[in-house]
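Risk register update: the risk of archive-format incompatibility is retired. Evidence:
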Amino acid sequence: MTGNGPNVEFRALERSVKEIEKRFLAPHLGPPTLAVPGRREILDVAAYVVLVHGALENFAEGLALWVLTKSVGNWTSRKKTTRSTASLLLYQKSPGAAVTLSVFDNIRIALDAAKTRMSKAIHDNNGIALDNLRALFIPLGVNVPADTVLVASLDLLIEMRHHWAHQDRRRAKVVRSARDVQTTVSDCLALAKKLSDEVASARP
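Archived output:
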């Protein structure tokens, strides 16, 4: 996944979401109705939410790994620094005062240490909330879009996924119709596209 780039990653996300939508939402996307969603629709929406949440999390982590690998590779193979390289180095503490043979080696060692820490942070990531995304991308020199409408939809998707994935009995489940959740996921995809564009413009 790390060699594909932001546009390829986003198109893969779109394909995945469309496939999940076709399987779980399509049967319920008839003409609008005032009726309360039935049990089958509720369960299909729940499955859709959990799977889309997973696809978005996989997309964000893949994008972050791509930036990380690209940044380190640019220095190691071309001795080229970018905003992402500088941000990655500045965000982390210095690896120590060990004497190295050259400036190149010094930066390479620092990048290797930062890459190890950042790789662990990416693999240990457990969510797609705004704070999770910022923790993944700010160290890599990439701004995370903060459009209030899109973030609100992301928060709603996370809340619905949390209720269904963890069966939290202390809180009422967030029940949405297939059409409502389709709109929510459309907003999440718009946020993912903006994030992908930010990664591309950072030129890691």
